[in-house]
Design brief:
GO molecular function: DNA binding; transposase activity
CATH topology: Nucleotidyltransferase, domain 5
Largest sheet: 2 strands, antiparallel
InterPro entries: Transposase_11 (IPR002559)
Strand order of the largest sheet: 1-2
Mean pLDDT: 88
Low-confidence stretches: none
Protein name: Transposase
CATH architecture: 2-Layer Sandwich
Distance between the termini: 19 Å
Number of strands: 4
Structural class: mainly alpha
Helix content: 40-55%
Shape: globular
Order of helices and strands: EEHEHEHHHH
Amino acid sequence: MLADALGRPLRFIVTAGQVGDITQAPALLDGQSGDAVLADKAYDSNALRAIIAGIGATAVIPSNRTRRIVIPHDADAYKQRNRIERCFYRLKHFRRFATRYDRRTANFTGFIHLAAAMIWMQ
């Protein structure tokens, strides 16, 4: 999921449970602009950092512990990453989202659109 600076959902891609989120990050960032992209350690890859630099933003991603050369990040800016967590928290207020009540991806995606629209209205 991609969220704005206020923690409102902008884009999302539903994947299978065993698929890593980093595989969808380039598609989420396609056509976006901004000053910085904040993400957690799971998104630490050179390829993603190159995509972020390509859109003219700064990658605020802590280095994974397996990285040999640690890439520094802005710790003060990283504190704002909690806004995506708040976005998921608001979405999980909808029981249908939290329990993945809909088994078909199309139905689940449709409900996410509805829930995201309701969050934007708050």
